[in-house]
Amino acid sequence: MNKLFKSIGIIIVFLATATLGLAQGDIITAKDFSKVIKDKNTIVVSVQSKKNYGVSHIKGATHLDHKLLYKDGKPEGLLKSADDLAKIMGENGISNTNTIILYDGAKDKYAARVYWILKYLGAENVKILEKDMKAWRSARVPLTKAPAKAKATTFTPKVNDAVIVDMAWMKSHLNDANVVIVDVRKTDEFTGKSAKPVSPGHITGAKNLNWETLVNAQGVLKDEASLASLFKSAGITSDKTIVFYCATSVRAGLPYFVTTTILNYPNVKVYDGAMNEWASVSSNPIEK
After folding, report:
1. SS3 letters for the chain?
2. What would the CATH number be for the domain defined by 161-287?
3. Statement: 25-144 belongs to CATH 3.40.250.10
4. What is the pLDDT of residue 14?
5. pLDDT at 104 over 70
6. pLDDT tens-digit series, residues 68-91
7. Per-domain residue ranges for the chain?
8. Of 216, 220, 270, residue with least CA distance to 79
9. Would the CATH topology of 25-144 be identical to that of 161-287?
10. Cα(86)–Cα(83) distance, integer angstroms
């Protein structure tokens, strides 16, 4: 009988652990982080601003400026080629074979952007560190001002075209009932009423879900049930192909992260050119 209860207990613990893992997706807790950083194959990458990195960052974390990943000129925010991106990653000590842990100080906006880029490049083991300073202190996550420079390595890209779309794809799917296009900017940008930044409106037919509604007042991701409700209420459901965009698609990273790793949506993409590219072509349909 004792063996039976013991077996049942093991099963319950396993199910609870599995459920917890499902809920947190590719978020790594501060407690787990303290364990995994001992692995030599793990690299911690700060994508906070260079200024904030200089003030304080996790000990051993290398700094990556996400702005280095975009082409020069207009439209702003277009990704560089996969080979160029891979070279930048390698120069910053990031390999596609690493366990890559990202964090920032901006509601995970930049961490999630780089997460999506790494997934586009085919990196398999990418995590975002939970943003919970109380948990950081409890787990004694070490902080420092001293910069860290990871040794250059090789990043071999295995491009995943399933997570990215271009303007031609967008044009051909504007009236596709199986595709939901989602503008993740603030409502006044979506409606074209924003004075700063100036916005012409949104891609015709797009739905609106402000990316900032995914986090609480402390900038921490909301729980799974709340996130699921937000997307469902906005008409963004898992049975459709979902395409996120903003002005440059930087803000599209967190909705991509949430839907793919926490809510397990099977078909999610980001429009790389975003509103900046779309609005640069006068014949592209825009509404307010």
Report:
1. CHHHHHHHHHHHHHHHHHHHHHHHCCEECHHHHHHHCCCCCEEEEECCCHHHHHHCEECCCEECCHHHHECCCCCCCCECCHHHHHHHHHHCCCCCCCEEEEECCCCCHHHHHHHHHHHHCCCCCEEEECCCHHHHHHCCCCEECCCECCCCCCCCCCCCHHHEECHHHHHHCCCCCCEEEEECCCHHHHCCCCECCECCCEECCCEECCHHHHECCCCCECCHHHHHHHHHHCCCCCCCEEEEECCCCCCCHHHHHHHHHHCCCCCEEEECCHHHHHHCCCCCCEEC
2. 3.40.250.10
3. yes
4. 32
5. yes
6. 999 999 999 999 999 999 999 999
7. 25-144, 161-287
8. 270
9. yes
10. 5
Retrieve residue 151's tokens.
């040794």
pLDDT band at 25 (very low <50, low <70, confident <90, very high): confident
Structure-block tokens of residue 48: 């906070």
pLDDT digits (tens, 9 = 90+) for 221-276: 999 999 999 999 999 999 999 999 999 999 999 999 999 999 999 999 999 999 99
Q: How many other CB atoms sit within 10 Å of the CB of residue 58?
A: 21
